[in-house]
C-alpha cells in the first residue's frame, strides 16, 4: 500500500491518494483543480473507490464533485459538517475567497469512532475536533499513516480562529487521539510536508507542556 500527495489550489491543500496493491485507491480531501487530480489518477491507472473528507472547509472540498461525477463514488464527511458542503458561509469560501465554493451533499455521514471497510481498505475514524467541529482523522494501520487534515502539521497545529474552532479541544484531540499512535506513524497533513508522530512529540512547540 502506498500514498501520494498532490498539493492543489491557491492554498496548496494536500489531496492524498492511498493506493492498494490491486490498483484501487481512496481519495482524501480533493480541494481544487479537479482536472489535474483526475489526470494524475488516470495516468497511473488507479480505480477510485471513495472520497473521504477530513473536514469541509472550502479548500478541502473544491474538486469533490469533479471526482464524484467522474467515477460515481461515495463521499464521506462527518455529520456535524454535512451542511458545510452546500453553504459557502459555513465552509468559509465567501469569507476568504469572495466566491461560493460548494459541492453536492455527501453520501455517507460519519458519526462516532468506527472502522470503515471500503474495498480492501480498512480505516479507523477518529473524531478530532478543534480546527472545526467535524474534523476527523483517518488511521490506516496497514500503511502506518494517519490522514490528519488540518489538525496536526509538521511543527504546528491547525488554526482555531474559524467558526466552530476551539484551541483546547484541538490540543485534546491531538494528545488523546494522535500522539497515542506508534511514533513511526506518518502524519499526512492538510498543508505542507508529512511528519511523524514521534517527531511532533519531540519538537512541536505547540504540544510541549500541555
Automatic annotation (TrEMBL):
Pfam families assigned to the protein according to its UniProt record, in alphabetical order: Lactamase_B
> Which SMART domains would you find in this protein's record?
Lactamase_B
InterPro entries the record matches: MBL_Glyoxalase_II, Metallo-B-lactamas, RibonucZ/Hydroxyglut_hydro
Its cofactor is: Zn(2+)
For this UniProt record, give its keywords in alphabetical order, as a comma-separated list: Hydrolase, Metal-binding, Zinc
The Metallo-beta-lactamase domain covers which part of the protein? 12-191
Question: GO molecular function, one example?
Answer: hydrolase activity
| Top-level taxon of the source organism | Bacteria
Q: List the PANTHER family hit by this protein, alphabetically.
A: HYDROXYACYLGLUTATHIONE HYDROLASE GLOC (PTHR46233)
**Name recorded for this polypeptide:** MBL fold metallo-hydrolase
> Organism, per UniProt?
Anoxybacillus flavithermus
Amino acid at each position: 500500500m502506498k500514498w501520494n500527495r498532490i498539493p492543489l489550489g491557491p492554498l496548496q491543500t494536500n489531496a492524498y491518494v492511498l493506493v492498494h496493491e490491486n490498483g484501487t485507491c481512496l481519495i482524501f480531501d480533493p480541494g481544487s483543480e479537479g482536472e489535474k487530480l483526475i489526470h494524475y489518477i488516470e495516468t497511473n491507472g488507479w480505480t477510485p473507490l471513495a472520497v473521504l473528507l477530513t473536514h469541509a472547509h472550502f479548500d478541502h472540498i473544491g474538486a469533490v464533485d469533479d471526482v464524484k461525477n467522474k467515477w460515481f463514488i461515495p463521499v464521506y464527511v462527518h455529520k456535524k459538517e454535512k451542511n458545510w458542503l452546500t453553504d459557502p458561509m459555513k465552509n468559509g469560501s465567501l469569507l476568504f475567497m469572495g466566491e461560493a465554493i460548494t459541492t453536492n451533499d455527501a453520501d455517507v455521514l460519519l458519526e462516532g469512532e468506527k472502522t470503515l471497510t471500503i474495498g480492501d481498505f480498512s480505516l479507523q475514524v477518529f473524531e478530532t475536533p478543534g480546527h472545526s467541529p467535524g474534523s476527523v482523522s483517518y488511521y490506516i494501520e496497514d500503511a502506518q499513516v494517519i490522514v490528519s487534515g488540518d489538525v496536526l502539521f509538521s511543527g504546528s497545529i491547525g488554526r482555531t480562529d474559524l467558526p466552530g474552532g476551539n484551541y483546547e479541544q484541538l490540543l485534546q484531540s491531538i494528545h488523546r487521539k494522535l500522539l497515542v499512535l506508534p511514533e513511526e506513524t506518518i502524519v499526512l497533513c492538510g498543508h505542507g510536508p508529512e511528519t511523524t508522530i514521534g517527531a511532533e512529540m519531540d519538537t512541536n512547540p505547540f504540544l510541549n507542556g500541555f
